[in-house]
């Protein structure tokens, strides 16, 4: 649990970085907005909360640093520096992003009752999937992929800033909590079970995010827990088709391909998901063109047509009788 003593805001690290504000409180690390003392540059710093960590965690952190140093992608914030404080806290300095988080933007859209277009939503997730594909090839899996950990830059482009965070397995989610669950969480089923995760867990999280961007909320759970546990390989959410009709078949297939409960049923790689997103974007754009060039015809009910014919016939008969008189 976070306490005021845990908060390092106001401290200066190695006479170089002043920690201004804690942004994210994690299991073993915290993320701060910081200022470079000599240049005044704003940066992000991911720092271990405790001065001492076990050798395995320390080694994994340095491996992450080394792996990320070779990752170059416009949607992954680069690591600018790394080190260890005088007290022994490991830290990484990450390029700052000036905009809000995707969670902030979702709240704004939901408050105004607006959502991005299907193509805009697909392109945003495409950028994230492409970035994660590059990270996966470097052996890095995002451990907490959710809108609050995705930043948006001045051009509303998503940026991942916390790939350096070491993985800490979650304790299994209690069954009682699962029974009370009304919506799917961003964490994959295997992560909530306390198991190790791989790139398919990131694909699941991206599927939840895409569903939320398109529908305005995360997938809801209408079925019983017994059904969930008896049919573990089946998607257990309300299908996107029911809450957001009118999208392309490729878009529905894409979302479904991400949200299977069993990891082996999902897209195997981020590259496969990227290709599926590109197909969905193409179909959505084609649908938009067709709708704009061929306006939907006005449909007149048959009873109205038949009623009109009867009235015309009756009117003609009455007129004929009047003329005969």
Task: Give your account of this protein's structure.
With 325 residues, the protein is α+β, with helices and mostly antiparallel strands. It folds into two domains: 12-95, Phosphorylase Kinase, domain 1, CATH 3.30.200.20; 102-293, Orthogonal Bundle (Transferase(Phosphotransferase), domain 1), CATH 1.10.510. The protein contains eleven helices and eight strands. It has helices spanning 55-69, 102-112, 118-137, 175-180, 189-192, 199-215, 225-230, 240-243, 249-258, 270-293, 302-324; strands at residues 12-13, 17-25, 29-36, 42-48, 79-84, 90-95, 150-152, 158-160. Helix 3 (118-137) runs antiparallel to helix 10 and helix 6 (199-215) crosses helix 9. It is elongated and about 100 Å long. The protein starts with 11 loop residues before the first strand and ends with a helix.
Q: What is the element layout, followed by pairings?
A:
Layout: E1 12-13, E2 17-25, E3 29-36, E4 42-48, H1 55-69, E5 79-84, E6 90-95, H2 102-112, H3 118-137, E7 150-152, E8 158-160, H4 175-180, H5 189-192, H6 199-215, H7 225-230, H8 240-243, H9 249-258, H10 270-293, H11 302-324
Antiparallel strand pairs: 1-2, 2-3, 3-4, 4-6, 5-6, 7-8
Helix pairs in contact: 3-6, 3-10, 6-9, 9-10
């Amino acid at each position: 649990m976070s306490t005021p003593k845990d908060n390092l805001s106001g401290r200066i690290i190695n006479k170089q970085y002043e920690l201004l504000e804690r942004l994210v409180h994690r299991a073993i690390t915290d993320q701060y907005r910081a200022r470079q003392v000599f240049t005044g540059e704003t940066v992000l710093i991911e720092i271990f909360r405790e001065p001492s960590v076990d050798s395995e965690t320390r080694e994994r952190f340095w491996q992450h640093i080394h792996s990320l140093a070779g990752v170059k992608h416009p949607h992954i914030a680069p690591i600018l520096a790394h080190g260890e404080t005088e007290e022994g806290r490991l830290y990484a300095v990450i390029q700052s992003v000036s905009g809000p988080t995707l969670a902030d933007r979702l709240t704004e859209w939901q408050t105004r009752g607006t959502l991005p277009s299907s193509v805009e939503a697909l392109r945003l997730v495409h950028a994230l999937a492409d970035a994660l594909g590059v990270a996966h090839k470097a052996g890095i899996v995002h451990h907490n992929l959710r809108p609050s950990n995705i930043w948006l830059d001045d051009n509303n482009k998503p940026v991942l800033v916390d790939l350096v965070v070491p993985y800490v397995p979650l304790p299994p989610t209690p069954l009682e909590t699962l029974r009370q669950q009304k919506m799917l969480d961003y964490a994959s089923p295997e992560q909530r079970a306390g198991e190790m995760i791989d790139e398919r867990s990131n694909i699941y999280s991206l599927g939840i995010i895409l569903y939320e961007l398109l529908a305005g909320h995360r997938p809801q759970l209408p079925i019983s827990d017994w059904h969930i546990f008896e049919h573990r390989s089946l998607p257990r959410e309300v299908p996107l088709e029911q809450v957001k009709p009118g999208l392309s078949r490729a878009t529905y297939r894409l979302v479904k391909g991400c949200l299977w409960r069993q990891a082996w049923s999902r897209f195997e790689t981020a590259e496969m998901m990227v290709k599926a997103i590109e197909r969905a974007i193409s179909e959505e754009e084609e649908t938009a063109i067709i709708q704009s060039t061929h306006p939907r015809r006005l449909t007149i009910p048959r009873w109205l047509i038949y009623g009109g014919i009867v009235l015309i016939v009756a009117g003609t008969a009455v007129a004929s009788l009047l003329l005969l008189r």
